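Protein: Radical SAM domain protein
Species: Thermotoga neapolitana
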Amino acid sequence: MYDFPQNEVLSVTVDPSHTIPVSVTGTFCSLNCPHCEAHYLKHMISVEEIPVYVEKGYRSFLISGGMLPDGSIPFERYEDELQEYKKKYNLLYNFHVGFQKSQLARELANVVSMDFFGDTSVLKKIYRLDLTPEDILNISRFYRKVVFHITIGILGGQISHEEKALEILSKETDSIVLNVFIPTPNTPFGKYSPPDPKEILRIFKKARKLFKTVILGCMQPKGTYRKELQSIVKDLVDVVTKPVDGSGKFKGCCAFAISE
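Structure follows.
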């Protein structure tokens, strides 16, 4: 865990591979959002496999899965196992809760990750859910420690709600994780390009003015784009996740690195 002094950019590097992603729904997601279409669920392990990874030395897990039509994730189907493993192995859990109040997540999470949208119409185009920014904030207040994520350019690479989202969240929290849209092959948004780096820079500059702690999250396009991205934001962030030089001072999710 790190403490980030106000107005001092520390640039801690994070290697997220030490936190293992877990899906409670396998590869199923009822929403099949256009930027993902359940693609990333294929790379997650099952709850039953957690002890296998504990034996390999892992102690932190991202508990997630595909969403149901109301934006919830059915964690409760594995309530007994998740409680048992956390107690038995003294695990750290980061729950990616979707858009729901989950009592199990509230009880077991060391930290909760939530995606945020500053515009109802953008969220509906992505998730097909009728939720306002205030609805998301009301859900977040149910949890003890929440780290908000904004994906820059999630609307097919377009800049849309991001600045408004930053303004809203700056009144709720002093830290923000900024991800960058990845055009994922074989999805409806796979044909689009990542956001213009100049637009990315503008968003990060605004975030730097509004937040005590600014994090470049793990969702970043690969290759030369990632190298350029990290180069242009390096002086504006406290945390760089997946640094291109292969370093990683903190081992695990960036949400763990900034949670108290």
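Remarks: The first strand starts at residue 12 and ends at 15.
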